[in-house]
Amino acid sequence: MTVARLSIFPLPGTVLFPGMHLPLHIFEPRYQAMVSDAMARDRRIGMIQPRPGTQRRDGEPALFDLGCVGRITEVEALDEGRYNLVLQGVALFRIVRELAVTTPFRQVEAELIPAVTEVEILALGQRAALELESRRFADAQGYAVDWDAVGRLDDEALVNGIAQIAPFDVAAKQALLESPDLAARAELTIQLMHFFGRHDGDDRVTLQ
Q1: Furthest-apart CA pair in the chain: how many Å?
Q2: Judging by DSSP bridges, how do beta strands 44-48 and 2-10 pair with one another?
Q3: Residue 44 and residue 125: Cα distance in Å, rounded?
Q4: Which of the four pLDDT bands, split at 50, 70 and 90, describes residue 82?
Q5: Strand 205-206 to 83-98 pairing
Q6: Whole-angstrom distance, CA of residue 122 vs CA of residue 183
Q7: Could you tell me which of 112, 116, 134 has the C-alpha nearest to residue 179?
Q8: What was the pLDDT predicted at 115?
Q9: CA separation for the pair 74, 86 (Å, rounded)
Q10: Is the separation of the CB atoms in 178 and 66 below 8 Å?
């Protein structure tokens, strides 16, 4: 595995998969500095989730071990140093150690995990089950979805797209990111949509 130095953006509830795109609005000064630094170097940012309920001695949250490197493919500079970005997932990474740095943003040494070279394909029954559960979940939440466009997605784009945008909690998002293959991620996505797609009296997505 290749070892790389990465600037990281810890963001709870947000994951990125290789090949997928993630829009971001950057407004905190330290992450504005991170974007400026990335644009001056290799345009790469490591997306990773903080572990809920954890805190280091310096007050920063502890991190999960696994994240995804994103390359800035689109950037729009806004007022007050803010940015709108689009990241394209490049590769998963696993943190080796966090680095002692003077930058306002955190940096790590990480192993880049080689991408799967062969195309992963779901069984027809699993693809059908995923689309059916997606419709149920979207209808329950009142989401407007272009199902014709969804039907044209390949299996990887469908599974990873749902995993990125579905309103699951941090632990569920991380479990999806760490799934060993596409079929396992699809099965977990189906279970999570069923699990999170229940409602309380206020019509909010809840764990029950």
Answers
A1: 52
A2: parallel
A3: 38
A4: very high
A5: unpaired
A6: 6
A7: 116
A8: 82
A9: 5
A10: yes
Residues in the chain: 208
User: Is the Cβ–Cβ distance between 171 and 52 less than 8 Å?
Assistant: yes
> Which residue, 77, 82, 67, 93, is CA-closest to 12?
67
Would you say 18 and 89 are in contact if contact means Cβ atoms under 8 Å apart? yes
Cβ-proximal residues to 178 (8 Å cutoff; 6+ apart), any chain = 66
Residue 153 CA to residue 19 CA, distance in Å, equals 13
Q: Which two tokens stand for residue 185?
A: 């991620």
Chain segment 9-60, per-residue pLDDT in tens: 999 999 999 999 999 999 999 999 999 999 999 999 999 999 998 888 788 8
Our CA dihedral for 139, 143, 149, 155, rounded to 10 degrees, sits at: -70
The helix/strand count (H/E) of the chain reads as: 6, 8
In this prediction the pTM is: 0.90
Cα-to-chain-centroid distance, residue 36: 21
Consecutive H or E run containing 33: helix 29-40
Cβ neighbors of 164 (< 8 A, separation 6 or more) are 14, 15, 16, 17, 20, 22
What angle (nearest 5°) sits at the alpha carbon of residue 108, between those of residues 7 and 24? 30
Q: How far apart are CA 193 and CA 154, in angstroms?
A: 20
